[in-house]
């Protein structure tokens, strides 16, 4: 589902960029960056699906399950999708807006973009598997089925490690 | 791709070892349709991996690896497997029929219930143990040492004994 939505969204953005014909550079750059990040995320999802499908089930159980759980847990690395957030605050910018309404632009639009940029960078750096145990991460991801499966995969990895230890 | 001879050889081997698939499906799935789905997935994965089977281990060992891996993966995906009262191990079932003893029958059901309450990997180990597989083969299938196999079996048996005594008191 996420893959289909990602592809559809990329197509819509592609059409919007093509329709804009570089008339507004701010819109073009913003839409292009969102499209690029979405395409990368879709590619990562597809790569994961392929890797999981191609997994060799004839290896020992602990080895196979460890590989599978690591693959499932690594979907958390798709956190770079957050990096597109600031571009949602810039695609309506225009030269007319910057020149014609400077005060509103510098006092409202730019601080909002800066805030989103800082928040995005902070989330990108902190929304890592190592921080999964923290309350704010749990609160943020508690209803996301992808992240729930990531947590389950990480718990199972711990179980495998314990099983290997004896 | 498999040629005709390989296909026939594969089908023959699957027919000879089909009990392994039944046992694992019974152990990891509660209802009939889930069991059928799991059996299909196991056979598909066996067929997909068969070209890599080089005979370095017994076919049954290789088959246990694939089947248990698929079963554990499916189980974790669906989390549907709950308690199973059906006997999954033919050895137990046969003994049950001979004895025709209601207490024994109850105990077998309880044993089955307790085994199904174990974690996925422990359950896999117990399936192999009840099949009377040598420790070396169990170690090979699970990817742990023989010493570890022995330690774990002892721990699980103690755990099961405790559960039995708790249930009986």
Structure summary:
The complex is a heterodimer of chains A (166) and B (169). Chain A has 166 residues and is mainly α. Chain A is 72% helix and 0% strand.
- Describe the sheet with the most strands of chain B: none
Number of helices of chain A: 7
- The tally of beta strands of chain B, per DSSP, is 0
CATH architecture of the largest domain in chain B: Orthogonal Bundle
- Put simply, the count of helices of chain B is 9
- The share of residues in extended strands of chain B comes to under 5%
- Given this structure, which CATH class of the largest domain in chain B is correct? Mainly Alpha
Q: Work out the number of β strands of chain A.
A: 0
Calculate Rg of chain A over CA atoms: 20 Å
Question: How would you sum up this structure, described in words?
Answer:
The complex is a heterodimer of chains A (166) and B (169). With 166 residues, chain A is mostly helical. Chain A has one domain (2-165). Chain A has helices at residues 2-20, 25-53, 61-73, 95-100, 102-126, 135-141, 145-165. In chain A, helix 3 (61-73) runs antiparallel to helix 7 (145-165). The longest helix of chain A has 29 residues, at 25-53. The radius of gyration of chain A is 20 Å and the shape is elongated. Chain B is an all-alpha fold and 169 residues long. Chain B has two domains: 1-81, RNA polymerase sigma factor, region 2, helix turn helix motif (Rna Polymerase Sigma Factor, Chain: A); 83-169, Arc Repressor Mutant, subunit A, CATH 1.10.10. Helix content of chain B is 76%, strand content 0%. Chain B has nine helices and no strands. In chain B, helix 2 (18-28) runs parallel beside helix 4 (59-78), helix 3 (32-49) crosses helix 4 and helix 4 crosses helix 8. The radius of gyration of chain B is 17 Å and the shape is globular. Chains A and B meet through helix 3 and helix 7 of A and helix 4, helix 7, helix 8 and helix 9 of B.
């Amino acid at each position: 589902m996420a893959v289909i939505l990602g592809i559809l969204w990329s197509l819509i953005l592609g059409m919007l960029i093509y329709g804009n014909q570089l008339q507004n550079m701010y819109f073009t750059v913003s839409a292009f960056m969102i499209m690029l990040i979405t395409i990368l995320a879709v590619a990562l999802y597809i790569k994961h699906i392929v890797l999981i499908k191609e997994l060799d089930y004839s290896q020992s159980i602990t080895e196979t399950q460890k590989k599978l759980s690591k693959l499932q847990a690594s979907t958390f690395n798709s956190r770079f999708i957050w990096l597109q957030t600031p571009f949602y605050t810039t695609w309506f910018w225009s030269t007319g807006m910057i020149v014609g309404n400077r005060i509103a632009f510098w006092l409202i639009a730019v601080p909002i973009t800066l805030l989103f940029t800082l928040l995005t960078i902070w989330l990108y750096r902190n929304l890592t598997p190592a921080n999964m145990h923290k309350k704010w991460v749990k609160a943020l991801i508690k209803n996301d089925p992808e992240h729930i499966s990531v947590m389950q995969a990480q718990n199972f990895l711990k179980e495998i490690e314990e099983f290997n230890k004896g | 791709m498999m040629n005709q001879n390989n296909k026939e050889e594969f089908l023959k081997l699957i027919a000879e070892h089909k009990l392994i698939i039944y046992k694992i499906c019974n152990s990891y799935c509660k209802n009939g349709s889930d069991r059928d789905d799991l059996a299909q997935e196991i056979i598909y994965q066996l067929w997909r991996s068969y070209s890599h089977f080089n005979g370095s281990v017994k076919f049954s060992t290789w088959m246990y690896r694939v089947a248990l891996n698929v079963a554990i993966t499916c189980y974790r995906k669906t989390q549907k497997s709950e308690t199973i009262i059906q006997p999954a191990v033919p050895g137990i079932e046969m003994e049950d029929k001979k004895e025709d003893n209601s207490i024994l029958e109850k105990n077998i059901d309880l044993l089955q219930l307790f085994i199904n309450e174990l974690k996925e990997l422990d359950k896999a180990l117990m399936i192999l143990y009840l099949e009377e597989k040598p420790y070396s083969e169990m170690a090979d299938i699970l990817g742990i040492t023989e010493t570890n196999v022995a330690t774990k079996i002892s721990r699980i048996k103690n755990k099961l004994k405790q559960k039995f005594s708790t249930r009986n008191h």
